[in-house]
């Protein structure tokens, strides 16, 4: 294992990161928007919000990278948090700080790197907003200023999230190890275990707020064809992109989960059937409205949806079954559509 330089205040820094309660949490549409903007603005292969943990760097938001985390020992970000200044490496093969090192040799996809440290409210480094590319490039002072602006927005948002009621609820509900076991590494959504965990919590919250708990089953149309035509890497990208679009189409308090394969389940607190169907329609349009960009192709993907409202005195298992049956009707009714399952209680 490579030796990793540690900040002088590593203990305090790690405690600050732990207090933030962001490690091993679902992807955030706001941060995904920022990294997508950085990816497109700078025309790099990868744009990431990286949190530097004890022995890994974990990506809270990622564009152009499939991995959810990589070892801290193979990390330019672990070097970037040693200073309050950005770390700019225009070409790792000739940069006197890194040329010939194990880090440069073992990370060929990161020949160019630009990372801006992200801090908590007390100035302790948490990670970076970073750019990376397998090709060397010059990084102008204007580009540096733009990266700084995006890092400022990212840092401010992380601090706001830490103070939000939603973060408080998550801290109370789950330990980090529990979260890790409930997070799908590919899509960075809650997995089926997360769905089953949050179902009774969302039901109780809906009752307290005098709302109804809505369940939306989503299944990507003709997904086997995607894997057959574009390979599993292409299929994985479609799952990842679909998860981003679904999360961006719903509200911050809604719970988006990957139930398995190409099937997703959303829990949402609503007033009535009409509101539930409006949310489902936003999800459908978010998937279908724009083609997905694969490495060598453009894909028009659609999704079928089944919706149900949890009835009074109805079990959540039965409501899920009704939503699944509605999804089945949507599939057989022509796909790329939403069906609602009335409660007969």
TrEMBL record:
Q: Which InterPro entries match?
A: GAF, GAF-like_dom_sf, GGDEF_dom, Nucleotide_cyclase, Rev_trsase/Diguanyl_cyclase
Taken from the record, one Pfam family name reads: GAF
Q: Which residues form the GGDEF domain?
A: 211-343
Gene3D superfamilies with a match to the protein in the record: 3.30.450.40, 3.30.70.270
Instruction: Note the PANTHER family from the entry.
Output: GAF DOMAIN-CONTAINING PROTEIN, SLR1143 PROTEIN
The protein depicted here goes by the name Sensor domain-containing diguanylate cyclase
């Amino acid at each position: 294992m490579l030796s990793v330089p540690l900040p002088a205040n590593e203990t305090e820094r790690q405690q600050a990161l732990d207090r933030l309660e962001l490690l091993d949490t679902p992807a955030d549409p706001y941060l995904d928007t920022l990294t997508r903007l950085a990816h497109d603005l700078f025309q790099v292969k990868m744009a990431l919000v990286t949190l530097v943990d004890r022995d890994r760097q974990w990506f809270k938001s990622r564009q152009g990278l499939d991995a959810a985390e990589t070892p801290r020992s193979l990390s330019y970000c672990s070097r970037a948090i040693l200073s309050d200044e950005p770390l700019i490496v225009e070409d790792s093969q000739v940069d006197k700080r890194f040329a010939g090192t194990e880090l440069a040799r073992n990370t060929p996809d990161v020949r160019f790197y630009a990372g801006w440290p992200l801090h908590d409210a007390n100035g302790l480094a948490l990670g970076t907003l970073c750019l990376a590319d397998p090709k060397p490039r010059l990084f102008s002072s204007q580009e540096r200023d733009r990266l700084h602006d995006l890092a400022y927005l990212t840092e401010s948002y992380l601090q706001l999230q830490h103070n939000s009621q939603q973060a408080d609820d998550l801290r109370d509900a789950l330990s980090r190890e529990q979260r890790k076991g409930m997070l799908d590494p590919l899509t960075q959504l809650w997995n089926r275990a997360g769905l089953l965990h949050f179902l009774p919590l969302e039901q109780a919250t809906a009752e307290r707020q005098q709302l109804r708990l809505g369940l939306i089953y989503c299944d990507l149309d003709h997904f086997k064809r995607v894997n057959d035509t574009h390979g599993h890497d292409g299929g994985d990208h479609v799952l990842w992109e679909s998860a981003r679009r679904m999360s961006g189409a719903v509200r911050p308090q809604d719970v988006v989960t990957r139930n398995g394969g190409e099937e997703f389940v959303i829990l949402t607190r609503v007033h009535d059937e009409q509101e539930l169907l409006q949310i489902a329609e936003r999800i459908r349009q978010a998937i279908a409205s724009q083609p997905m960009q694969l490495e060598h192709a453009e894909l028009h993907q659609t999704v079928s949806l089944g919706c149900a409202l949890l009835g009074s005195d109805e079990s959540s298992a039965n409501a899920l079954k009704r939503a699944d049956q509605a999804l089945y009707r949507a599939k057989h009714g022509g796909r790329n559509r939403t069906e609602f399952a009335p409660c007969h209680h």
